[in-house]
Amino acid sequence: MDRLENAAALDSAVDRVRSMVRAAPLGHARDVLHGRWLGHPVHPLLVQVPIGTWLSAAVLDLLPGHRRGAHTLVGVGLAAAAPAAVTGWVDWAELQRQQMRVGLLHAVTNTVGVGLYAWSFAARTRGRTGRGKALGFAGLSLVGVGGAIGGHLAYRQASGANHAEAVPHLVEQGWHEVGAVADLPVGQAIRRHIDDVSVLVVRESGGRVHVLADSCSHMGGPLSEGAVEDGCVRCPWHDSVFRLEDGWNVHGPATAPQPVFDARINAGKVEARLRVPGKEPA
After folding, report:
1. What is the pTM of this model?
2. Is there a single domain that holds both residue 267 and residue 204?
3. Which of 129, 143, 217, 250 could form a disulfide with 164 if both were Cys (CB 3.0 to 4.6 A apart)?
4. Nearest to 258 by CA among 225, 209, 206, 211
5. d(CA 82, CA 129)
């Protein structure tokens, strides 16, 4: 897997497929497919259906008298595989290069597995149950390998994880000095630090100051290098948009909001403290 992550020979294929996925006219549906409404990627949720039905079909194939039930389960899994694949491709197109290399193999392996299950379903429909069972077991083996590769993506490479989750555990409670107000240009994103955690600081024309965690929750991109527009900041890496007021992710691919800090001005200095969810700022 380490060699696969660094397999630059895959990059031409990665770039072609990514361009096609990004060019798809999905509009606002793209955020739905990312799972912004759910608070985390929706792809892992959807894949439970085909995996679960195909595993159940394999169990029935080992028992006598369950041919019809196994046939039905294989068909249900095939129907559920399409939306799961679509959400996976949309997420994949917004990953880092090493993750996309691994993800490409993940997708190819699962695609072949789905093809075997389609072949299995056709064989069962024609009454060739023995062939259908053999193809089903082969498909389950490949889907299992694809799932293992997906586990590497999720847990080794942190694909789909909230890359800003650690911030509340790294910042001490209470107010922290961020810097002088005079050093903050109006309307520009500036990077500062609180307890060695990078934060984004934006000063409005009316004097109000906003402070968010700088590392984008999607893939850790530096929000302080992004554009500030309409009360929001846009990540320079994958165009996630976060509201400065409360860190809310108004546009994906980020599925988690940014940690936000309460800010105040004290003797010409900006001070900030981590905002506790559900607690009104003081």
Report:
1. 0.91
2. yes
3. 217
4. 211
5. 24
How many angstroms separate the Cα of 36 from the Cα of each of 48, 92, 121, 248? Answer: 19, 15, 34, 11
Range of the domain at 73: 2-156
* Maximum CA extent, the chain: 83
* Measured torsion, CA atoms of residues 169, 173, 179, 180, in degrees rounded to the nearest 10: 150
**Nearest of 96, 238, 217 to residue 166 by alpha carbon:** 217
Distances in whole angstroms, Cα of residue 111 to Cα of each of 3, 82, 86, 140: 22, 10, 12, 12
Q: Examine the domain organization and report whether 142 and 185 are in the same domain.
A: no
CA distances from 175 to 49, 172, 195 (A): 47, 9, 11
Q: List the structure tokens of 112.
A: 């072949």
pLDDT of the chain along its 282 residues, tens only?
Answer: 999 999 999 999 999 999 999 999 999 999 999 999 999 999 999 999 999 999 999 999 999 999 999 999 999 999 999 999 999 999 999 999 999 999 999 999 999 999 999 999 999 999 999 999 999 999 999 999 999 999 999 999 999 999 999 999 999 999 999 999 999 999 999 999 999 899 999 999 888 999 999 999 999 999 999 999 999 999 999 999 999 999 999 999 999 999 999 999 999 999 999 998 766 555
